[in-house]
Structure formats: structure tokens, C-alpha cells
Specification:
Largest sheet: 5 strands, parallel
CATH class of the largest domain: Alpha Beta
Distance between the termini: 27 Å
Oligomer: single chain
Order of helices and strands: EHEHEHEHEHEHEHEHEEH
Length: about 270
């Protein structure tokens, strides 16, 4: 097995862990430019597994084109993207996956999480386990979230991951009139197969009680509930008994986790 690290000028934590892990496994690991990698990958032996870590930094261009180039050069290479924190949008991460990357993660995430993702990239093992959420294509997914500054990017990442998994996200774009809000949300939850509750606290007001009201209504209707929360936030109330829970570093991390848990082959 061989490993390539591409565009690792910043030599971030992900690149260092990948290099050390590959060498610990007794595998050769080279630091290459994208151009050099294209040449080597074109002549790669299909019988020899190849692991590629494409690293971005603040000067990097959109990594989607790089993933497509690498995939075209070698169809059997396993490509992971270790992104600069500025590349945190969920849409960017999902498009890298669709271009042929097996995973997309941030070099700035917590050490334990980064070790897990790098370990999966080197071993070829899945980075995400199945949650057993069997949803028919087109099933509705209600997104319960605060209307707060800072929430938009996270909510957009959730929506796009749900849609890319072949499901239909439901979320109110504008605050409905007060008289209509209860009946509107109740109807949307009733018509959904899954509720994703964004429990992240975005300001000093603490947990949003509307989220837990909607979660309680959903659980009373026997709906499946997935809880998500940014790492380092206020802990979830223990009374929720959350069975499906994702904590995340940035919008990209959240979108990738939701996509892998909901796509049809999960």
C-alpha cells in the first residue's frame, strides 16, 4: 500500500497524522504536488492500494477540481480531503464527496476526531457507522432549528445533506404568523419520517425551548429524532435520552455526517 499527501505546504495536523500512520503500517508515503501525483497515479498498479490525502490551506483553490483530477488519473485511489478551516461550507464538502472523495474533514477539528478520520483514511475502514435509519427515497425530514445569527450555514448544510441523500427537507424559511406557527409545525412534523433537531446554542440565551417542544411533539408521534450540536456547546439535557446524536466541528463536518447516515446505502 502506498500513500500520497498532496498540496501539504502548510503541513497541517492531518498531514502529519496521515504520514505517521502510513509509515507505522510499514507503507511508503510521499509528499507530492498535484501535477506529480497525476503522473504517478496514472501508472499505479491496480493491485496496490493507494491512499491519497489532499490538503488545503488558506491559499488553496476550490478542492473539488483537484479531487476530480485525481479520480480521473486513478479510479481506484481512495481520496480524502483534509481542509483548512476556512473551507467549512457543507456544500463544498458534499461536492467533494460526489466528485470522488471518500471523506472530507477539517484539520482544525478535535484531536480525537481527527485521529479517527485519519485512521479510517489509512485503513480503508468506514469512518461512519450505519444508524439503521431506513427511509424511503423522497421521505420528508423536518429540521428543527433556532432562528439565530450564526445558524444559517449549519442549517444550509443540513438541508443540502438531506437533499443529496435523496430525501425532502422541511424547514420554515420565514417566521410564520404567531397564530399559525403551532398548526404549521405540527403538520410538518406529522408528515415527516425523521426530525433533525439542531440543539446548538448560538447566543447567551441558552437552549431554545421551541426545539425541545418540537422534539417532544415528534417523539409523542413516534417519529425518529436525530440530534446535532456543535462541539464545545452546552450539553444536551439528559432527559432527552438521545439515541442518534452527532456533534460537529463546522458546517462541512455536520453535512458529511448527516449525508453518510441518510444516504440509501447507509
Amino acid at each position: 500500500m502506498r500513500g500520497f499527501i498532496i498540496n501539504a505546504g502548510a503541513d497541517n495536523n492531518g498531514a502529519k497524522m496521515f504520514r505517521d500512520r502510513m509509515r507505522h503500517q510499514g507503507c511508503r508515503c510521499q509528499d507530492l504536488t498535484l501535477g506529480a501525483a497525476k503522473v504517478l497515479l496514472k501508472h499505479a498498479n491496480r493491485m496496490n492500494p493507494i491512499k491519497v490525502l489532499y490538503c488545503t490551506d488558506e491559499k488553496s483553490r476550490n478542492p473539488i477540481a483537484a479531487v476530480k483530477t485525481l479520480r480521473k488519473s486513478c479510479a481506484h485511489a481512495e481520496i480524502s480531503v483534509c481542509a483548512y478551516d476556512g473551507h467549512s461550507a457543507g456544500r463544498l464538502a458534499l461536492d467533494c464527496l460526489h466528485a470522488g472523495a471518500r471523506d472530507f474533514f477539517s484539520a482544525g477539528m478535535t484531536a480525537n476526531r481527527l485521529v479517527h478520520r485519519i485512521g479510517a483514511a489509512c485503513s480503508g475502514e468506514p469512518a461512519y457507522g450505519s444508524l439503521g435509519l431506513k427511509l424511503a427515497p423522497g421521505s420528508r425530514v423536518f429540521i428543527s432549528t433556532p432562528y439565530a445569527i450564526g445558524a444559517n450555514e449549519d442549517v444550509q448544510g443540513i438541508e443540502e445533506a438531506v437533499r443529496d441523500a435523496g430525501l425532502s427537507p422541511l424547514i420554515s424559511r420565514k417566521e410564520p404568523k404567531l397564530d399559525d406557527i403551532t398548526s404549521k409545525i405540527s403538520g410538518e412534523i406529522n408528515g415527516s419520517e425523521l426530525v433533525i433537531a439542531n440543539c446548538t446554542v448560538y447566543d447567551r440565551s441558552g437552549h431554545n425551548p421551541n426545539i425541545y417542544h418540537e422534539v417532544g411533539f415528534a417523539r409523542g408521534r413516534k417519529k425518529q429524532v436525530m440530534y446535532v450540536m456543535r462541539i464545545g456547546g452546552q450539553p444536551l439535557p439528559v432527559t432527552l435520552g438521545a439515541k442518534v446524536f452527532f456533534d460537529y466541528h463546522a458546517s462541512a463536518d455536520l453535512a458529511v455526517q448527516i449525508y453518510f447516515s441518510l444516504r440509501p446505502d447507509a
